[in-house]
Amino acid sequence: MSELRLMKGNEAIAEAAIRYGVDGYFGYPITPQSEVMETLMDLRPWESTGMVVLQAESEIASINMMYGGAGCGKKVMTSSSSPGISLMQEGLSYLAGAELPCVVVNVVRGGPGLGTIQPAQSDYAQAVNGGGHGDYNLIVLAPSSVQEMADFVELAFELAFKYRNPAMILSDGMIGQMMEKVELKPQKTRMSNEEIAEKYPWATTGKPSSRERNIITSVELDPYAFERFNNKVQAKYKQMHKEDVRFEQFQCEDAEYLLVAYGSSARICQKSVQLLREKGIKAGLLRPITLFPFPGVELEKLAGQVKGMLAVELSAGQLVRDVRLAVNGKVPVEHFGRMGGVIHSPEEVVEALEKNFLKG
Amino acid sequence: MALEVKDIIKPENLVYAKTKLLTERMLHYCPGCTHGVVNKLIAEVIDELNIQEDTIGVTPVGCSVLLYNYIEIDWHEAAHGRAPAVGTGIKRLRPEKYVFTYQGDGDLAAIGTAETIHACNRGENMLMVFINNGIYGMTGGQMAPTTLEGMKASTCPFGRDVEHDGNPLNMTSIVATLPGTCYVTRQAAHTAPAVRKLKKALRKAFENQKDKKGTSFIEVVATCSSGWKMNPVQSNKWMEANMFPIYPLGDIKDV
Question: Which Pfam families did the record assign (chain B) (predicted)?
Answer without folding.
Answer: TPP_enzyme_C
